[in-house]
Design a protein that fits this description.
This protein has helices at 53-61, 73-78, 80-87, 91-109, 113-117, 137-149, 162-174, and strands at 2-12, 15-31, 34-43, 128-131, 153-157, 183-185. With 194 residues, it is of the alpha/beta class. Helices cover 38% and strands 26% of the residues. The strands form 2 sheets. A 3-stranded antiparallel β-sheet has the order 1-2-3.
Length: 194
Amino acid sequence: MIGVELERPFPLGFGVLHQLPRVIYTIEVDNDGDLIKGFGEASIDFPFSHYDAYDVYSALQNLELEGQSIQNREKILNSSAIREDLLINTPAAFCALNMALDDALGRSVGKSVIDIYGGKKRLGLRALSSLSFKENDMDLVNEASILFQGGFIPKVKLGRGVERDLITLSILDKNTPDEFRFAVDFNAQYSDGD
C-alpha cells in the first residue's frame, strides 16, 4: 500500500486530496525455469467506494494462486471464488490481479497487453488530466490551455453550485479556441433534481 503524494493539494467538492491511495500487486511466475514478475495496480476511488486500500491489500494477500499456470489467466479471473470475493467486494483488487496476470503473461511470451487481447493501438488519443477548483476562472483557462497544448484533455473539477459552475463553463468556453476539448467532473455534488 502506498500513498502517492500530489505536487500540491487538490481541492474537491468534499475536501482536499493530499495523496492518491494505491495498492501495488506483484506475482511471480515460473516460466521454464525463469522467474517472471507481473505487476498490477489498484486505484482506490476514495471516498466513492465502500472499501479502502487496506481492504484491497487484504483481499489480494489472501488469494490462493500457487501452482496455477499463467496460461490459465482467463480461467483464474473467471473462477467463481475470484469473481465472488474480489470482483463484487473489491473491484480495484480484481483489476490489480487482472493487470498482474496480463503483465506476467505478456512478459512470458514477449507480447504487449494490446497484442495479447488482439487490439490495435490508436494514435491521437489523449489522457485526461484533472484540474482542481480555481478562485480565478482565468487561471483555470490558462492551466487548461497549457494541458491541452501538452496533449492532455483537461478534466475540470466543478461542484461549487449550479450558478457558479455555469459561469466557470461559460468563461472556459469563451476563452478557448474551437478545437479545445475538455471534460467536467462535478465531484458527486449534484442530484438528478439539480
